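User: Design a sequence. Structure:
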């Protein structure tokens, strides 16, 4: 049985301990999408550090249909926030690529998340901060995160919690239900996470925690994605010379 209250309290203490050891007095910098992960991460940081030490960064890429959810979250928590539209940066870089180099579909998809992370670190280094990673276990399990994009950060409160568990913690934190239960989207491609994955988080979460799954085809797909993306979760391999 998942005890959301206990896990929430333990995570708050973990965040406090991280900042005591890795930046006493520093601020938590959180990219705010308006979904459950960034909402729960920001709320945990507020409880751990106080709202005066949490900074939200909203990063639309041009027009973002659900940007009001991001604003609702920062207003609800009462935290300082900045809005940085990354549209010009993304297109400036794309337009600077030599004509003989055609960016792949995956490169185009991953470019905005990486620019968002660069933005977070620019804010963090300017305001005495530490960048929060907002990925959860379910996303990480199948590699649904961009390496050095939304998969980066200085500390990660949710990376060992499934989507269902993150939602339970969001309810314990008394976050607005429409943010906790908001359909997961990346705000970039116009599709939901589950559309892109080809299976639901409910199925994935159950498989991660129990090993149980009804659809053998989906099982094979999840297993393949997990294996192919394990490198994203490991430290960079480094050659060790015999000296």
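Assistant: Done.
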């Amino acid at each position: 049985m998942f005890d959301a209250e206990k896990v929430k309290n333990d995570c708050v203490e973990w965040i406090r301990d991280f900042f005591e050891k890795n930046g006493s007095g520093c601020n938590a910098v959180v990219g705010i999408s308006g979904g459950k992960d960034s909402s729960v991460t920001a709320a945990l940081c507020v409880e751990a550090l106080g709202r005066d030490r949490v900074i939200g960064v909203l990063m639309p890429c041009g027009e973002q249909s659900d940007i009001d959810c991001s604003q609702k979250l920062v207003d609800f928590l009462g935290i300082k926030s900045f809005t940085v539209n990354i549209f010009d940066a993304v297109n400036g870089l794309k337009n600077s690529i030599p004509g003989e180099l055609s960016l792949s579909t995956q490169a185009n998809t991953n470019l905005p998340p990486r620019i968002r992370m660069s933005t977070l670190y620019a804010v963090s280094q300017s305001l005495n901060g530490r960048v929060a990673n907002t990925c959860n276990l379910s996303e990480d399990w199948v590699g649904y995160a961009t390496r050095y994009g939304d998969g980066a950060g200085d500390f990660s409160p949710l990376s060992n919690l499934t989507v269902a568990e993150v939602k339970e913690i969001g309810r314990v934190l008394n976050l607005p239900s429409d943010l906790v239960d908001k359909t997961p989207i990346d705000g970039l491609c116009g599709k939901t996470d589950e559309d892109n994955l080809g299976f639901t988080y409910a199925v994935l979460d159950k498989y991660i925690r129990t090993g149980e799954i009804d659809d053998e085809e989906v099982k094979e797909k999840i297993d393949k994605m997990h294996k192919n993306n394990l490198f994203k979760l490991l430290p960079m391999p480094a050659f060790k010379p015999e000296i």
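DSSP finds eleven helices and four strands in the chain. The chain has a mean pLDDT of 94.
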